[in-house]
Structure formats: C-alpha cells, structure tokens
Amino acid sequence: MALDQYYLLGRSGLRVSRLALGTMNFGTGGFHAAYGKTEAEARPIFRKYLDEGGNFVDTADFYTAGESETILGRLIAEANLRDRVVLTTKFTNSVDPGDPNAGGNGRKHLIRALEASLRRLGTDYVDLFLLHTWDRITPAEEVVRTLDDMVRAGKIRYAGLSDVPAWYAARAQSIAEASSLTPMINLQLPYSLVQREIETEHVPMGQDLGLGITAWSPLAGGFLTGKYRDGGSGRFSDPDAQTWTERDWQLLKPLEEVAAKLGVTMAQVAINWVATQPGIASAIVGASSAEQLGKSTAALDFEIPADLRATLDEASAVPPTSVYRMFTARYQNWIVTPDTKVGDKPAGYAPVIRNW
What we know:
This is Aldo/keto reductase. The chain is of the alpha/beta class. It has eleven helices and ten strands. The strands form two sheets. It has an eight-stranded parallel barrel with strand order 3-4-5-6-7-8-9-10, surrounded by six helices. The chain has a two-stranded antiparallel sheet with strand order 1-2. The radius of gyration is 21 Å and the shape is globular.
C-alpha cells in the first residue's frame, strides 16, 4: 500500500498519512459545482484512498455548499471505518448572507458551524477542526478559547488553523501555551514548486511551535502537470492561466527533465517534492477518479535524488526580499565570522524514531 506509513501531526500523538485526501469536489452544489462529483462518482475515489492505506481526509463546510461533508459522512458510515479515519473539517465562510454572525471566526459562528458540520457528517466528533481563513477581526484569544471548549466537550479531538498569517498562528499558539489551553497542531497552507512563499515565515514558525503543515494545491491547480501547455509553446490554453508568470513557465522544463530521468510523471515529482519538504506533515491531493488518485499516491513510491532535488530547488527558489535578506548565510557572516562555525544542534542530535 502506498500510504501505509504514518507520521505524527505537529506536536501531537495523532498519526496521519503523508498524503491527505481532499474532498472539495465531493458534491455538485455551490462554488465548486463546476468540477464536482456525485456521491456515486466520489465513492471509488474514497475507497481507493482507504485501500491504499490512507487515513487523513479533509473537507470543509464551504465545499460544494455542504454536500462534501454530507457525502463524506455517508461514505465513512458505509465503509464502517469512522474510528480509522482522521476526519478534518473547517469553518469560517458565511452560511447566511443576511446574518453578520453566520460567518467569520467568532464564538457564535464557530459553535454554529461545528454543530452543522457534525449533522452533515453524521458523527458526534471530528478529529481535527480548523479555522478555514483569517477574518482579520476576531481576536485570537476568542478562537483559541472556543476551540478548547470544544475539545473539553468531546466534539473535536484536535484544533488547527488554515490560511492565516504566520504572526496570527504564532499568537494563537502562544495564547494556548500560556493559558494551558488546547494547542494548535496543524496549519493548512498553499504550497508548491511555484508557490514557496510560506518558507519565509510559516514553515519555521510551524517547526518551532509544533504546528505540522498540510500543503494544499501541491500541483498549483494542475499547472505542474504541464496540462496547460499548448503544443509545447509555453503559452496558456486556459483562461485562468494568466495568473502564471514567465518564471513559472520556465520551471516546467526542469520539472519535466527530472520526471523523465526518474521515469515518473511531472505531477508525481511535484507531489513528492512537496510531501518531503522540511516542515510539511502531509500534502493534500484531490482526484477526479480513482485512477488519477492512484497515480498521485504513487508519488511516494520513489525518492528524488539529492542532485535532482537541488535542480528543482534552484529553479523554483524565491529570492529573499526586504528584511529577510538579513537572515541569509551571507548576511549572517557579519554576525558570526566565517572562521567561526555555529549551528543549532549537531547532526544526529535528535535521531529519527520509526517502528519499521
């Protein structure tokens, strides 16, 4: 099985697969209807993920106007594997445009959102409950306290965040630690070879404060599969392609070369690269079919050699800007002279613990 190795999520004892199943396309309603799947179409995708050994499933109340949760709940019950699945859902988006308290991250909506998600999912608890998006105004103290109350009530097992500034995540975690409240163990963020900005703040913050990062869109909306290339011209055949830069297009060439050398697809290399980057606990993959999902899970069946990884790293690197230029090795040599070698910990200080 491709996903039968599990790792701890953040600073917790929760074991999760290195690839999580994204279910944003489960359902045919709401904002995501254009590429949604019926329950009959979603079933083989879900079963394939379980058959591969996966246990980490991600949804949100906003996906397909709640249908994703409803379908996923039925599929989990049908498989009779509720205890095995690490079920994740998220809240923030409005469920009633006329009600100012029916969206955002305030306590009133947070409680309302969880209760509605539990009904749709057909369960009395979720394993991981995430704030979906920073609303810019709700105090972190209120969010952390409410999540802690939910853990104490037995309605969620763990708490986390998604798509928030690094400073906000750090503040939330610090509040939890200082007040002996439920800590955040997960931070969900966009991350791929063409979108590496989280490495500046979010990744080191997560490593230091115990938030395992789950990366969404590791294929950058399908761009890294190469499917948007028009006859190899390097130009867009998709209307959304205007968001991609010349730098992004140039990255496809070394990605394709690495894939050819390894005998795998560009998509598999891109997923493997994300899932094995520092600070990344899991990469979220979606699929339009069981066959496509099988190709994605096979991304863990090989290793990217150091020289080929260096090729990808160099081609996709994001140059530091502003104050971050001061944190490079070159600048730091002015703090500690080159003839004095200073590091955090020696190699092997914290040996890797595995039971296989």
